[in-house]
Amino acid sequence: MTPVLFTVIVALVGLERLAELVVSNRNLAWARERGGQEYGAGHYPAMVLLHTGFLAAMLAEVWIMRPPAPAWWGVALAGAVSAQALRWWCIRTLGHRWNTRVVVVPGLPLVDSGPYRWFAHPNYVAVVLEGVALPLIHGAWWTAVGFTLLNAVLLRTRLRVENAALQQAPSSPGARPAARGQ
User: Fold this and answer.
1) Measured between alpha carbons, how far apart are the two ends of the chain, in Å?
2) What is the pTM of this model?
3) pLDDT of amino acid 181
4) Considering its fold, how many domains does the chain have in total?
5) Closest CA to 80 of 120, 127, 116
């Protein structure tokens, strides 16, 4: 794995993030048209900053500190690809309901299909997996550890807000009591 190839991979993830924002903004408009109420907007700028900084930090670490790519970089790449696959499974499962904010549309039951059948918050599992795997493709340990710690603090807030907001949504037949989230 070369720094140039790693940069291409990170750039592709950045493009994927832009595609997510397009989908998110379209879905946010859909939710608002149906009376969707946003919760926890105060922490959203910190989330955007952290996730943008994550991409920049791993590139800076690789290009400035020049860590060697681990011999097992393929395992890390497989983890990063798996995280993307899980994220898009979440997006597909939630459909119009998915966006990067916490928005509850009145009257819609919680989703209990796809990955939400097994995890209350599978998208956050994808974020955690990606936060470790993507930087480790090229040995960016500092970014992997720093993002993981900062993301844990942010996720604590995000999960508290999201779980409280989703408690207001009606449960679908057979749904587990745990909230399903974006």
Assistant:
1) 33
2) 0.88
3) 46
4) 1
5) 127
Gap between the Cα atoms of 175 and 179, Å rounded = 9
Decide: 114 and 93 in contact? Cβ < 8 Å: yes
Model pLDDT, residue 107: 87
Looking up tokens 């119009």 gives 96
For residue 114, the enclosing domain spans 3-166
Q: Which two tokens stand for residue 12?
A: 């592709």
The CATH number of the domain holding residue 110 is 1.20.120.1630
Q: Give me the long-range contacts of 156-165 (CB less than 8 A, separation at least 24).
A: 157/40, 157/43, 158/40, 158/43, 158/47, 158/102, 158/124, 159/121, 159/124, 161/39, 161/40, 161/43, 161/102, 162/39, 162/40, 162/102, 162/121, 164/39, 165/37, 165/39, 165/40, 165/102, 165/104
Per-residue confidence (pLDDT) for residue 171, from 0 to 100: 58
- Whether 171 maps to a domain, the answer reads no
- Block means of pLDDT (10 residues each) for the chain, 182 residues, are 96 97 97 94 96 98 95 97 98 96 91 93 97 98 98 96 84 44 46
